[in-house]
Amino acid sequence: MRPYDIIYKKREGQKLSPEEIRYLINEYTAGKIPDYQVSAWAMAVFFQGMDAEETADLTMAMAESGDILDLSEIEGIKVDKHSTGGVGDTTTLVLAPLVASAGVPVAKLSGRGLGHTGGTIDKLESIPGFKTSLSREEFINNVNNVGVAVAGQTANLTPADKKLYGLRDVTATIESIPLIASSIMSKKIAGGADGIVLDVKVGNGAFMKGIDEAHSLGKAMVAIGHEVGRETIAVLTNMDQPLGQAVGNSLELKEAIQTLRGKGPNDLRELSLILGANMLTIAKGVDNFNEGYSLLSENLSSGKALCQFKKFIGRQGADPAVVDDLELLPEAENVIEIKSRSDGFISSINAREIGLTVMMIGGGRVVKDDAIDPAVGVVLLKKNGEEVLKGETIAKLYLNDLSHQQEAVKRLEKAFVITDEEPSKKDLVIDIIK
After folding, report:
1. C-beta atoms surrounding 323 within 10 Å
2. Which residues, if any, are the signal sequence (predicted)?
3. Is 188 a catalytic residue?
């Protein structure tokens, strides 16, 4: 078997066999096929695409290129949730203890933030003492003892995906549905999931800007799940403005705790309930979506989910007292108010600009080794559709280093578009694909 033949076959629009795909991925991971040949193959895939079977074969080849976490020691159906990345996307912090409070085990591997989207691990590490590096035994014991564990991904999880993603990033082949779908799903499968709920973000703050391409991605990932025997649901959700009000690690953590207290922003609460109810349905913890939604709503109102969060963070080395006293979490030294420039209605908020502003002031990474300031960020006091008066505070900027203050204020002011007419309301959930 030769890489040349595989490249030529895909260039001509022909279907690759499972053996050809496995050979290409295994040999590339082992360093036996050079970057330039895999770059040519990726470009051929970019233009010619892959069918559902090919994409599933690629997914499994990447998943099997490294460690696959065996979660068989955890009783029950393990359902993972993945977001394609957004701004203020705090759902995992709410979902993990919320779903666990309903008796469904949550064993989740999460990543760090890069660019304008945040990472769950960074948010959790805002809690003093919280440990995200767990051995396999610790990870499984935590789930068995307190119902939930969230840890960083192991170094040898899907090494093929790491190599291929880095190559795609510099060869203009990122925007390929089969390559995106297989990248996401390979990590979920390698993480030991029996079932998967996908939060596919759509809008100016998301990777997928348009509904059509988000539909294509959601359908491709659900098809992969079906092909490899994992029940999978994709929920397409609006990211034309940040989710919730807080953007920034410690600020988002505080907002998640408020949501677990039965408060918090309506959109974060609602999306957490919708994703969670789908997770319970896949895990057979309830008979249907409505039953799951009602159960999780009750667990938020009763404090059961909050109690689960305390057990979870305590088990991973943090002091549960932070749940009762949010001032124990990192706080910025300076708070700058962003004022409305006119009367009117908030017609749009550029979520990507909000995320980039937080990254600029130290709340995110340009490269993976950048240090993060957990205290900095932005809190939105007004969201899309709300009426504002000139001079009214529409957001707050939380800073430690003031060197970027002026630029950050200008970017935030421009991120808010204010018009005379009240805009039409956009749904939080656009579609659900099963």
Report:
1. 20
2. none
3. no
Q: Which residue is catalytic, options 89, 122, 161, 194?
A: 161
Catalytic residue selected from 78, 81, 82, 163: 82
For residues 297-326, average pLDDT: 96
383 CB contacts (<8 Å, ≥6 apart)? 241, 245, 267, 346, 349
Q: Which domains does the chain have, with CATH numbers?
A: 3-49 (1.20.970.10), 79-323 (3.40.1030.10), 331-419 (3.90.1170.30)
CA–CA gap between residue 371 and residue 34 (Å, rounded) = 32
Per the annotation, the verdict on 168 as an active-site residue is: yes
Among residues 110, 183, 186, 348, the one annotated as catalytic is 183
- The per-residue pLDDT for range 75-120, each reduced to its tens digit, is 899 999 999 888 888 999 999 999 999 999 999 988 776 556 668 8
Q: How much is the pLDDT for 117?
A: 64
Q: Could you identify the residue written with the tokens 């900027």?
A: 397
Catalytic residue check, 183? yes
Q: Is 352 marked active-site? A: no
82 a catalytic residue: yes
CA distance 337 to 349: 17
